[in-house]
Amino acid sequence: QVQLVESGVGLVQAGGSLRLSCVASGIIFIRTPMGWYRQAPGKQRELVASIGTSGDSTNYADSTKGRFTISRDNAKNTVYLQMNDLKPEDTGVYYCSGTLYGLDYWGRGTQVTVSS
Q1: What is the pLDDT of residue 8?
Q2: Could you give the count of Cα atoms lying within 13 Å of 67 in the half-sphere of its Cβ?
Q3: What is the DSSP string of the chain?
């Protein structure tokens, strides 16, 4: 059974930093491209950042470029999202996701709230 478990629930002030982690189990992590998504209240879920299997290839939403960094540790089956210079518009539920053999897997999400 595939499980993706996020951690790093946070309430931070604007300009602050937070690191999210996602531990994967039941999946061949080293073969799984991973991503972080977020969903703000009343809005659709959107891609925040993604990373290839080796960690060499990354992709960011325009709104997070230069502020967020996605990384992974294949030895620990973990993907991270370092978020700096947080803004109130970064508030939302952050989800970890992986795609393997055409199947998408999702974590339950973790709340990030940025106060102004």
Answers
A1: 86
A2: 16
A3: --EEEEE--EEEETT--EEEEEEEESS-GGG--EEEEEE-TTS--EEEEEE-SSS--EEE-TTTTTTEEEEEETTTTEEEEEE-S--GGG-EEEEEEEEETTEEEE---EEEEEE-
In the block, tokens 């703000």 appear at 40
Tell me the C-alpha distance between 71 and 80, whole Å: 5
Evaluate whether 114 touches 86 at the Cβ level (below 8 Å): yes
- Would you call 32 exposed, middle or buried from its count of C-beta atoms within 10 A (0-12, 13-18, 19+)? buried
pLDDT tens figures, 10-43 = 899 999 999 999 999 999 999 999 999 999 989 9
